[in-house]
Amino acid sequence: MKNLLVTGAAGGIGSEIATYASKKGYRVGLMDANHEKLKEVEAEIENSISLPVDITSEESVKHALDTFAETPDGLVNCAGIVRFGNLLEQQVKDFEDVINVNLLGCFIVSCSVARLMKEKGSGNIVNISSISGGKHPAIHSGAYAASKAGVVMLSEQMSLEWGKEGIRVNAISPGFIDAGMSAEHYVDPVERKKREGMVPIQKIGSAKDIANVVMFLLSDESSYVHGENIVVDGGVMNSVLANIGRN
Ligand SMILES: NC(=O)c1ccc[n+]([C@@H]2O[C@H](COP(=O)([O-])OP(=O)(O)OC[C@H]3O[C@@H](n4cnc5c(N)ncnc54)[C@H](O)[C@@H]3O)[C@@H](O)[C@H]2O)c1
What is the fold of 3-234? Predict the structure, then answer.
């Protein structure tokens, strides 16, 4: 049986990834700071083990990996936070928290796991970024876009340094997703319709849309894909000029 670690596994997208991986036969380590939610998710997913963790702490991550006890075949870095606010009013602490969880946390978990994968000579890492990290910062979103741009570049660097160790690394940049930290935007039907209209394929994505691509990247079907950032957004990133219109 293959082993997979998922950070942010108590969240909307992370729990869907963990669920899908379990259905595909993985034993899944559920890593998250939300201990209560983690227990609920663990109860619903076969062959899963909850690993309460603060990914910004190397010690906490080491403890989680010791508890998991196996060298993971795959790691999905999905934990993330956002602290809204315009830059001139943002508190340094909020900016710091976002960088720490989204970027430093990805670094700490990836390095801790990659050391084990290197010993084994194989592994597969998928880092969840965002379209915000790819030239489209959302207004009033504090450090979020900067942290996610960092995740894309960090993934590229990991791919350069760890490819020869047999570790494949890629990133995914989700667009408008009705799950987790964004679910509240889609409760209001007017707001939902507005956002759907901005997407070239006219629909909002789901956590399953992201989990599908994660599973592809973890599988041998993608064995020659390395150092990529796969945008999963229904075409939003390319739609800047779509509203100009032309007869
Ligand atoms: N939902 C979207 O529309 C969307 C779009 C683009 C990218 N993303 C990214 O996808 C990922 C998952 O987002 P989501 O929508 O499922 O959000 P979510 O808030 O439901 O899940 C994030 C999880 O990360 C966990 N977490 C936060 N800090 C942690 C820490 N220090 N240690 C361990 N766990 C911690 C939270 O407890 C939470 O369960 C995030 O990285 C997010 O930035 C989401």
Answer: Rossmann fold (3.40.50)
